[in-house]
Structures are given as C-alpha cells and as structure tokens.
Amino acid sequence: MSPVLPRHPRHATLSPTPKSSEKMLNSFRIIARKATLEGPGRTGIQRANFSSNIVRLGTDVLPPMSQAVVHNGIVYLSGQIDGTADDVVGKSDGGRGRLRLSARVRTAQTTPAVFSGQTKNVLAKVDRYLAEAGTDKSKLLTSTVWLKDIERDFGAMNEVWNAWIDPDNKPVRATTEASLAAPKLLVEVQVTAALD
After folding, report:
1. Which pTM was predicted?
2. DSSP-derived 3-state class of residue 193
3. Which residues contact 154 (CB under 8 A, 6 or more apart)?
4. More reliable by pLDDT, 15 or 127
5. Residues 144, 147, 148, 149: is their CA dihedral positive or negative?
6. Could you tell me the pLDDT band of residue 168, with boundaries at 50, 70 and 90?
7. What are the DSSP E strand ranges found in the chain?
8. 3-class secondary-structure state, position 80
C-alpha cells in the first residue's frame, strides 16, 4: 500500500512534537499575559495583536509597524531609535512637527557624548522590548546597526555596544552607514532573539 500524500505542499512540512507545541503555546500565553497586564492604562488590544501563532507587540507606538513580532520561538524587533533625541541634539518647535536643529547638528559636529547617549537609550529600548517579549540580550541571534556617520561614530558605538552586550552570547552583527529617518537620529539598532 502506498502512503497518502498531502494535497498541498505546505502540509508536507513536519509538525511540531506535542511537547514543543505545548512549550510554544506556554510562551505565547506568557507574552499575552504581559501584553495585557503590564503598563499603566494600556490594554492588550493596544499592546499585542495575535494572528495564528504570531504575536505583535508595541502596535500602538507607531501606526505603520509593530515594535516586536514573536513567531516560532523567535523575537524580531523593529529598528529602534532614540525617541528622546530632541532633548539631546535639537529643540522642539512646540509640537508643530518640525525640529529646529542646533548649529552643532546642522554642521555634523555631534559630540561623542551625544552619540553615546543616543546609543545607550536605543539599547535600553532593545532591552525593554526583549523583556516584554519574554527574552533578553543573552539570547540575541542577529543585530543590525545603522550609523549616520560611520567614520565618526563607529568607535563610540563599539564602546557602548561592548559594555552592553553579554560577552558570552554575542550575536552576529552588521554595521553600516545610513541616512536615518530624521537629522537628529545618529544610530538605529535592530535585533532578533530566541525565546529559549
């Protein structure tokens, strides 16, 4: 007797074992509980969006994206920037949506202290979102770092990165120069991490 073949190619994939399925389900329950219970005045609808076995966190921060997505035991963080950069390198225009940059920023003479401050703030956000998803930096798999001026800031970024990273669990990393979303932004970091 010949074996019965699945009708669609996606049915041919191996199914998770009952033990791994239960472990994954428990992980999603923990994430769902955190998404609905943590944060003053926030509800699960704002914090998490569930789609089959995909969990989306931080959906209320920016309309076009989630801050973190959890799928199949992997946490994917969006690129994190320093949202307080106005206070560091420029002055707000009173809520009209434009930033009046200081002469220091307009002439690209950002100090190492300003850059290091932004990098520390970004990595603190990475830590918060990883914790919210149920993991931490010791489980990082990949990281991508975008610098506004790689020649000027690469050394300062590495100094902050090396102080932050778990020395026994370093992820793979790519670092490149990029024109970031706003003139005030000097660094952006994106990571993926395992839940287990």
Report:
1. 0.65
2. strand
3. 147, 175
4. 127
5. negative
6. very high
7. 48-51, 54-57, 68-71, 74-77, 90-92, 99-101, 140-147, 172-177, 187-194
8. strand
